[in-house]
Fold this sequence. Notes:
The chain is 47% helix and 15% strand. It has 13 helices and ten strands. A six-stranded mixed β-sheet has the order 7-6-8-5-4-9, sandwiched between helices. A four-stranded parallel β-sheet has the order 2-1-3-10, sandwiched between helices. The chain is globular, with a radius of gyration of 20 Å.
Amino acid sequence: MDIIKDIRLRASQRQKLIVLPEKDDPRVCEAARIIKEQNIARIILLGKEDLDPKKIDSFAGKFYELRKARGITEEEARTTVSMPLYYASMLVREGEADGFVAGSVHATADVARAAIYCLGIEEGISTISSCFIMVVPNCPLGDNGVFIYADCGIVPDPSARQLSHIAISTADLAKKVFNIVPRVAMLSYSTKGSASGKLVDKVKLATQMAKEQAPDLLIDGELQLDSAIVPEVAAIKDPNGVLGGRANVLIFPSLDAGNIGYKLTQRLAGARAVGPLLQGIKKPCSDLSRGCIPDDIVDCVAVTALRA
């Protein structure tokens, strides 16, 4: 069974309640139809007309308490939670739903902001990030074509410490949600000193920090992409490396690289891209690319259900 079928099947066994707050998008409506037809999860489909005025009153007061230290007024709080995206986030916060998926209409920054403001940041996590699960057809690399890419949606220019946090969060998700044993490559334009510069130094330091924070994690860097995922190249460029060209979790040095990388893989290799899955938030939520198709939304709902 391929990983996408497995994700949907496992989600169907859990029957979590997931909110889709972009009802006006036909792709979302089609995704909701598929989800119900395949019994993947229970769905709340939200448009402006579906919001309960009594819940808005309740959510407005709670959101005001959350944000008043940041200068928000009670009127602004009410206006904010009257938006389906924030209303959905508050449903999850209050335990009335298990997670939300949005982003077919909203930009990633808007979805992430709603998640952070309403749900809060997970304890012990100082870096909010995102990852994609990439499923490349007819590919022997990674885990038979399965990779996890990070960060592709949140942190524009991560510091070495942030990169180390992203690596650990992504490896943890790979293991706990997808049952993948993570083999983490910290990517660069250099392989073990083949080039030099501040960007290379950042990846080296991030790798060292991640090893110190998670000593049992199988991680290596700095590595060029071919050294990370192609065993024959790794044997030449990095013969003593612990990954041996078998990485399945790829940590990109910047948002530029990560976002371009996942879209290249998706469009040129015909890969399925599930995500971006937001990491470091107290409760599960997923963003979507605004270029998504209904199946992308279905898969994000299934993964969000598994994380709940």
